[in-house]
Amino acid sequence: MKAVLEGPLMITTDFRTDAVLPLPHGTGCSCALHSRRLFGAVLLAGGAAAALPAQAQTAQALEGGVRSDVGKESRFTKLVPAEQVEQAAAQQYAQMMRSAADQRALAPDNHPQVQRLRAIAQRIIPHTEPWNPRAKQWRWEVNLLGGKELNAFCMPGGKIAFFHGILAQLQLSDDEVAAIMGHEVAHALREHARARMGKTAATRIGASVLSAFLGLGGTGDALLNMGGQLLTLKFSREDESEADIVGLELAARAGYDPQAGVSLWRKMLATGKGTPPPFLSTHPSGATRIQDIEAKLPKVAPIYANADKPTRRFGPPAKAAAASAPEQRGG
After folding, report:
1. CB–CB of 86/138 below 8 Å?
2. How many alpha carbons fall within 13 Å on the CB side of residue 136?
3. Mean pLDDT value across residues 303-325
4. Which range has highest mean pLDDT (176-180, 285-289, 295-299)?
5. How confident is the model at residue 12, as a pLDDT?
6. What are the phi and psi torsion angles at 295 (to 5°)?
């Protein structure tokens, strides 16, 4: 599977890094697929070949690695159609990008950190299909938001965003960025949001309503209403642990050192002086998390050793660009 950058170059005269960007809570915005413009380039599977590592030119089977440590798909995912979840996510993502653009807080395509994020994503994306066949048809997007939050996310359907604060305040290396991106992409691949929505549907509506819901009859709006909360869904600790180990493998296959997962979470914990920030509120405790990651390193180390490494390395943004204390909001 090949990841290809497409779309017109977005030009702006300045980029704010101190914007307050509230998470959207509604789905009244126009669908991203039909909006007048998609903000940011789209990373598509297929099309003209981009310069990709040789080992990423073909989809790899999940040989070795952490596959045996990952459980089966949640039964709750079957209660919610994937297409509808991805459509709702696309709408929310487009709404958030428009809101950021209105505040001059959506970084332009030629911003060095946007180029950095997309270069890392372009190495990770070819390794996603074995974890979820739907990833081959996702319209991947990667953007940088000018908020001070220590946050990043990947919504269903491959909609990725990083906040400037997490790059600047933590002074992340490329390997650490890949660890975060791999973790967030893993949530999308393992369809954790879809499972949480399915569980909500199963517990909030009765069997007869659920039957009609699955037929996408008059209850189809219920799904879209739940989709309006995609960015505020809280994953379970099991989801977070699973995303950690799948993310480690994705980063390793992409040529990024999985050891960075340890240094990353140490930095995260240091921001709260030993107490995890709200970004990690549902995650395993710091000591447990680092131990779990270290326990999986022997499984992904051979993958990393055999992977083609990036030929270009990027640096973090200047820390002075985010002068005030970072906001730490869940997401």
Report:
1. yes
2. 11
3. 82
4. 176-180
5. 45
6. -70, -25
Q: How far apart are CA 95 and CA 91, in angstroms?
A: 6
Per-residue tokens: 207 = 């069997």
- The predicted model gives 298-320 an average pLDDT of 93
| pLDDT-based confidence at residue 235 (cuts at 50, 70, 90) | low
Q: What residues does each domain of the chain span? A: 3-44+73-307
| 247, 121 Cβ separation under 8 angstroms | no
pLDDT (0 to 100) of residue 233? 54
Residue 141 backbone phi and psi in degrees, to 5: -135, 145
Dihedral of alpha carbons 295, 299, 300, 302, sign: positive
Q: Which two tokens stand for residue 286?
A: 């710091």
Q: In what order do the strands lie in the sheet with 42-45?
A: 3-6, 42-45, 139-145, 159-163, 152-155
Inter-residue contact 316 to 172 (CB < 8 Å): yes
Token match 């930095």: residue? 267
pLDDT in tens, 134-162: 999 999 999 999 999 999 999 999 999 99
| Residues in contact with 157: Cβ distance below 8 Å, sequence separation at least 6, in sequence order | 85, 86, 87, 89, 90, 138, 139, 188
